[in-house]
Design a protein that fits this description.
seven-stranded mixed sheet, six-stranded mixed sheet, 15% strand, globular
Length: 521
């Protein structure tokens, strides 16, 4: 029997009547089994970098994803790391502890995918032996999870040394070591893993499994048995990212005549102050002395006029056009409230999922600008001249902001945001070009209240679509022995200057913030 359908008022999509009140939003339904992404490779091969970056991307496009880093479980079980002796294959007590930590992480993976609304879990560990990978495959079969391996292979000494120095020597294991001693210990840790390392075998042992090999930081790829849409998205994403130094500049067009009147959307030209900003932007870009800077604009007049003063070639993207307000285009908020009072209230209720009649939602906009993100990941230095809602979507990707936060990110006119990818996150600097403009930001109404689980959380640290808990859940449960305080047969701790656990930004013309520089080994 066909079920009766009702149009969801917020998203304007048809849903079975009994499901219409399930969340009041368009939270996705997934038909395929959950996926466990299993990282493979020796230490200092960029596995955690890939894990965090991929998780940020999948969350941003609406696939609830979380990283489970086994190194963090190990640090909770082993309170005082002493030396690479812990990773020797003949250290039986340490081998047992490391396996227990991996099993504890898998238990949390199961809970996340079965009970907490997750769709993808990233199991971030070395997983260098067939025995360990077979254990994970068995775990997947028992729980009806798809398993997808990502192996990072690199033998370039300069890349490995750079990774160790940039990230590993600053992790908690080496908090009291000097850099030279930490570097030597970590190199010996790699040698311990190398003894038993069994790479994925494309021709024989692993030919039936789904995986991608990322070779020499993306110089080459080997892909085997891609089985579904999510795996295809993962492969495409990994083949487009790079780790070369670069800077991304985001700004809105100069103030427009519609901005002065508080009108939504439209295609008006720049105001007098908007033209002043475009000239100031040209001076700013010249001062940066950027090599091979690419400039992208939308196809709307105010964005193109802003770029014209730069005196350099620019590329127009339709995908960068402002969010389509549908029947509310070129209206003020007061006019919308008077003519469409219910629509006005619905948008305040759920700004991310709300779709304008005959227009778009922020959720739609994320899908529209995904090709822009993919191309930004491929490029080096880029200046994007776009619009408020579009800039919020781009910024939410780079700063790992939630769906709830995205529509309220502050992106003022006549301000440039300078994004610099660092370690496991992104540094953002807000630079005002000192040209006055109207304030188009509209804060979230105080009277709008939300309960837990109302929106998908796009945060790659806490569980997605699950209520918050004020009590920290223990990660290590069921160990046969108490957490190890000190390892046997280990060398003394290093005793030198403290190594900072996170990078910090420099204050330039205004504020500078580092996001998600979470070191793990």
């Amino acid at each position: 029997m066909l079920r009766e359908l009702t149009q969801n008022r917020i998203q304007k999509i048809w849903v079975p009547t009994k499901d219409d009140k399930r969340r009041g939003t368009g939270a996705p339904h997934f038909a395929n089994p959950p996926t466990v992404i299993v990282m493979v490779g020796l230490p200092a091969r960029g596995k955690t970098y890939i894990s965090k970056k991929l998780t940020r991307y999948l969350n941003w496009i609406g696939i609830p994803t979380k990283v489970f880093n086994v190194g963090e479980y190990r640090r909770e079980a082993v309170k005082n790391y002493s030396s690479y002796d812990f990773f020797k294959p003949d250290n039986e007590s340490a081998v047992k502890t490391r396996k227990q930590c991996a099993l504890a992480a898998l238990r949390d993976v199961k809970s996340y995918l079965k009970d907490e609304g997750g769709q993808v879990a990233v199991f971030d560990a070395t997983n260098t032996t067939r025995d360990r990978r077979d254990l994970i495959l068995k775990f997947g079969d028992e729980n009806d999870f798809k398993i997808f391996f990502i192996e990072s292979v690199c033998e370039d000494p300069s890349v490995i040394a750079s990774n160790i120095m940039e990230v590993k020597v600053s992790c908690p294991d080496y908090k009291d070591c000097n850099k030279t001693e930490a570097m030597m210990d970590f190199q010996k840790r790699i040698d311990c893993y190398r003894i038993s390392y069994q790479p994925l075998d494309l021709d024989q042992y692993d030919r039936a499994h789904s995986f991608i090999k990322v070779i020499d930081v993306g110089s080459r790829f080997l892909v085997n048995r891609i089985q579904d849409h999510i795996q295809s998205k993962i492969v495409y994403y990994l083949m487009n990212i790079h780790v070369q130094p670069r800077t991304i500049y985001l700004c809105r067009h100069g103030e427009s005549t519609d901005n002065l009147e508080g009108r939504l959307g439209g295609d008006s030209g720049l105001s007098q102050r908007g033209r002043q900003f475009s000239r100031a932007l040209a001076r700013f870009v010249e001062e940066q002395h950027l090599k091979d800077l690419k400039v992208w604009t939308s196809q709307l007049c105010r964005s193109i006029q802003t770029a014209e003063h730069l005196g350099v070639p620019y590329e127009q993207w339709k995908a960068l056009n402002e969010i389509d307000a549908g029947v509310c285009e070129e209206m003020t908020y007061d006019e919308v409230k008077e003519k469409f009072p219910e629509e006005f209230a619905l948008r305040d209720e759920d700004k991310y999922y709300y779709r304008y009649p005959a227009g778009e939602s922020y959720q739609d906009l994320v899908q529209r600008v995904e090709p822009v993100i993919m191309e930004l990941e491929r490029q080096k230095n880029v200046l994007v001249v776009c619009h408020q809602a579009v800039m919020r979507c781009l910024l939410a990707y780079f700063l790992d902001k939630s769906a709830e936060e995205m529509p309220y990110l502050k992106c003022p006119l006549h301000t440039v945001l300078k994004l610099t990818p660092v370690a496991y996150g992104c540094k953002v600097e807000s630079i005002s070009l000192n040209v006055e403009a109207v304030n188009t930001h509209r804060d979230r109404p105080e009277e709008v209240k939300r309960g837990p689980g109302t929106l998908i959380r796009r945060n790659s640290v806490t569980p997605l679509t699950s209520p918050e808990s004020h009590i920290k859940k223990p990660r290590i449960e069921g160990l046969e022995e108490a957490p190890i305080q000190e390892l046997p047969n280990s060398v003394a701790h290093c005793t030198s200057s403290h190594i900072p656990l996170a990078l910090t930004g420099q204050n330039l013309r205004s504020s500078s913030v580092c996001h998600d520089l979470l070191q793990s080994c």
